[in-house]
Design goal:
Keywords: DNA-binding, Transcription, Transcription regulation. It comes from Halodurantibacterium flavum. This protein has 307 residues and is an alpha/beta fold. Helices cover 41% and strands 21% of the residues. Strands 3, 4, 5, 6, 9, 10 and 11 form a seven-stranded mixed β-sheet that branches. Strands 1-2 form a two-stranded antiparallel sheet. It has a two-stranded parallel sheet with strand order 7-8. Helix 1 crosses helix 2 and helix 1 crosses helix 4. It is elongated, with a radius of gyration of 25 Å.
């Protein structure tokens, strides 16, 4: 039965998937020939699909210049939205195919947390909840749930995601690490000794070293500069290779320390600049797979919480 409260979009503003795919492919590849090869269609068919879309919308989407199609500014904006919509439909379709009984949770994860910590533990959850499928994708920063189509996300930072509900998983605790060989070549006796050494930096935590040093009684020091990274995973590998000292979350470093590839340089764990959170859109509170996943995640992260 049709929901009488749902607005009905006029049919002419709902182009077919084939029209939208052709349009998006031409915008992205720059030509009808390239789009035709990608879609396994003839070039003439792609041209007709684009013309049909323009006719349906009543707007010119491309300028024709010497056999080239140049998207208008409006078409470029439209193509971005169409691309997101097609991606959402594709991911939803994949979810139905992989789990026709329902129970699909699309989760955005932080890359290192997701691959190094969460992924190895997911089989336990999936084994206890065989009707649920979890799809993972990487996102480094907050995004618009409505546009991206995710059901939930693992987020690092503060409780400041607009329009979302959040559950704190644990606070970040950072330790100073380096390779055993680096420590032999650069012996340290106190945290103050680290200031003169190359300190590897993370883009999302530019003040982490200064804060770590302050918590260890080193005031007013200007930490030495080192290489800059966008992810913990690559920074960890650089530290293992001896490029400098890395401030790593304690829960991520224990594996490398246990294997002898990294050692604690000096000092203990210090409070980081934020916490790890499970975040979901407020409207998705009733999503069936969300509650069991949230309960499981809160339970499995309990040993990482200090409180």
């Amino acid at each position: 039965m049709q929901d009488m409260h749902m607005p009905v979009t006029p049919r002419r503003f709902l182009p077919s998937i084939s029209l939208l795919q052709a349009f998006e492919a031409v915008c992205r590849t720059g030509s009808t020939a390239a789009a035709a090869r990608e879609l396994a269609l003839s070039q003439g068919t792609v041209s007709r699909l684009v013309q049909n879309l323009e006719g349906q919308l009543g707007a010119q989407l491309f300028r024709r210049e010497r056999r080239r199609l140049i998207p208008t500014e409006a078409a470029q904006v439209y193509a971005r939205d169409v691309r997101k919509a097609l991606d959402l439909i594709a991911r939803s379709s994949l979810g139905v195919r992989s789990n026709p009984g329902g129970g699909v949770l699309s989760l955005a994860i932080l890359p290192t947390f997701g691959t190094r910590w969460l992924a190895p533990r997911l089989p336990d959850f999936l084994s206890a909840h065989p009707g649920i499928t979890i799809n993972l994708a990487t996102r480094l920063r907050p995004f618009d749930f409505a546009r991206e189509g995710f059901d939930a996300a693992i987020h690092f930072g503060a409780a400041d995601w607009p329009g979302a509900a959040m559950t704190r998983l644990f606070d970040e605790r950072l330790i100073a690490t380096c390779s055993p060989d680096f420590l032999r070549r650069n012996p340290v006796t106190s945290p103050a000794d680290l200031v003169r050494l190359p300190l590897l930096q993370l883009e999302t935590r530019p003040d982490a070293w200064a804060q770590w040093l302050r918590q260890h009684g080193v005031e007013g020091a200007a930490p030495g500069r080192g290489m800059m990274f966008d992810q913990f995973a690559t920074m960890t590998q650089a530290a293992i290779a001896g490029a400098g000292l890395a401030l790593l979350p304690e829960f991520l470093a224990v594996g490398e320390i246990g294997e002898g590839r990294l050692v604690r340089a000096c000092g203990g764990a210090a409070t980081g600049v934020g916490s790890y959170w499970l975040v979901w859109p407020e409207a998705a509170e009733g999503n069936p797979p969300l509650r069991p996943f949230r309960d499981w995640l809160v339970g499995v992260t309990a040993p990482l919480r200090a409180d």
